[in-house]
Amino acid sequence: MNISKLFHAPKAEDISLENLAANKSLSEAEKITEVSRQFEAVLLRQILGQARKPVFKSKLNDDSMSAGIYHDMVTSQLADGISKSGGFGIARSLQSQLVIQTTQSPDNQKKP
Known about the structure:
It is a single chain. This protein has 112 residues and is mostly helical. The protein has five helices and no strands. The chain has helices at residues 17-20, 28-51, 65-85, 90-103, 106-109.
């Protein structure tokens, strides 16, 4: 009989950004990966938010408050989906730079 655990180790993506640094169950590499992904998602939200703005005003554009909230939710979910897929690439670049900086010894970080 195979019984699964009731308590599972949390994934980095399930932990809020505020609690990520203090979490003892995650490795530094997992923390860096998640922070890089979330940073990419923020950038994508900004880019997609600007891209969704209408160029010309029209009667066909719905400028209501509920439409604005809906568009923000769609933009946020789209940005998160793109960042989780890894297709954009900014998170990987940022992650590799952060890993290099955090793994260097303090003596190597000092410049002559």
